[in-house]
Amino acid sequence: MASQNLTEYERKRLENIKRNDEMMAALKIHSKAATLSATAKRQRAKTYKVSPVKKPKAEIPIVIRRSLRTRGMPPDSKGLADDFCDNFDKNPKSVSPSKPHSPRVLGPISMSDAFSGDEMASNKMLIETILSISKKTQVGISVVEEFDDVKEEILSDIDEKGKSGSCKIEVSECPVKVEEVKEEFEGGKSESVSCGLVKGMVKNEYFDGSVNIEKSDPWLESLDLKPENVARLLPGRIIVVKFFPCSSMRMIAAGNKFGNVAFWNVDCEDEKEDGIYLYRPHTGPISGILIPQYSMSKIFTSGYDGFLRMMDAEKEVFDLVHYGDDIFSISQQPDNFTSLYFGEGRGGLNIWDIRTGKSSKNWMLHEDRINTIDFNSQNPNIMATSSTDGTACIWDLRSMSAHKPKTLKTVSHSRAVHSAYFSPSGSSLATTSLDNKVGIISGLNFEDISMIYHDNHTGRWLSSFRAIWGWDDSYIFIGNMKRGVDVIFPAQRRVVMTLQSPHMSAIPCRFHSHPSEVGMLAGATSGGQVYIWTPR
């Protein structure tokens, strides 16, 4: 009955199952499958997980980082050759790469050992040139000493005759001294006797280190950059550039970040020489070059390596003057040739007595390093300092206590202050800061402060901008990021013009105006080039 209730599909399914079972029974598949399953169960063995042996961790030693300077090793110059040769063929003049030197020496270094040129004859030529300039300067100094006697005769003549005259002496050598004498006469009138020892400058009855430019705008527009006044002096970034304070020969000294110092005789007429001489007296960046006007054969150089050296052309040696913490700036009072002022370490100021070879005074003036030191031309006891701590300060050296010296004036910026320089007349102070400001501080007591916007973000590959005064209080020069030189007019608190030239292939960052040649301006780049602008 049950089978009769099945559907046709179910009947066929049951028939297929029965047929398959009969076929598998005929082939003995069920018995073989059972035998195979039993065999597999007997052969199965117990397994164990083997854990790997733990290796003890090696102890990593604690490495204390030490700079190359503290280890007495030279700076890493990897990539220097590429940097030096990038624009080698693009410059009218260039120098060969410097040869390797041994680690820093705690003592004197002969100029021949520090020389990086190919021919030692070039070293001798520079020494002879510097000695020649120095001798001419001494002649100028003797003229000034003789003028003192002449001055006394004039004054005695004034007393006798009751009238006065003026005396102007022009010396063709380097400017060395200016004398001004005032004498009161009957009737309340005063006359002056002046002696201007400056070649190529505007003659003034009263010369105070500045130059009065009568037609300023046309004069500025006449500044020109000639191809022969462009040269690559050094590999890498130039940090400081200085003119020799002499009008008889155009000579420039420059220092770079690798410890090299280069000299460029712009007036070199030797066809076999380019007038460029390269030395390496330091193992760290050059922070300052000081060329005393009274003795240009003795040139002081300072560096981040903590060395203060004096290049003595007579002895042909870079002598060691002082060694200590990193030195970031160096200066000298205009009326004191026996002392050096340099910024050392984090905010320290050291006064070094050249005669005794010892430090006479030292103060902690800032919370961070001192970038520049400058003195007022009218009162050398007034000093200005700029610091990475964001301040520029004016000090009176006569009233500074030993422990906590007080400032006469403090100018605050929101970022590091890279420079603070007095104007030629001493009545104003110009500061340059990373906060994109150029500060002008003026007034009887420097109470007037004005901030002029200027893009000072040079980045890590360029030297910071430092605004400098020209030959009077009328203009300030500073580089810009468009390969030009901005000219700031302090009276209008703005940039009045920009010096540009097709011969400028890089951004000029550091400048120096010639002490006696009006209109001669040197600018240095981070590629080792120096540009010299001169009037047409």
UniProtKB/TrEMBL annotation:
Q: Pfam families per the record?
A: WD40
Annotated region Disordered: the residues are: 71-106
Keyword Transferase listed? The answer is no
Query: Where are the annotated WD repeats, by residue?
Result: 363-405
Tell me the SMART domains matching this sequence. Answer: WD40
Q: Name one GO biological process term.
A: DNA damage response
State the coiled-coil residue ranges.
Answer: none
Which key words are in the record? DNA damage, DNA-binding, Repeat, WD repeat
- List the GO terms this entry assigns under cellular component, sorted alphabetically: nucleus
A molecular function (GO) held by this record is: DNA binding
Q: Which family does it belong to?
A: Belongs to the WD repeat DDB2/WDR76 family.
From the Swiss-Prot or TrEMBL record, give the protein name: WD repeat-containing protein 76
Please give the organism.
Theobroma cacao (Cacao)
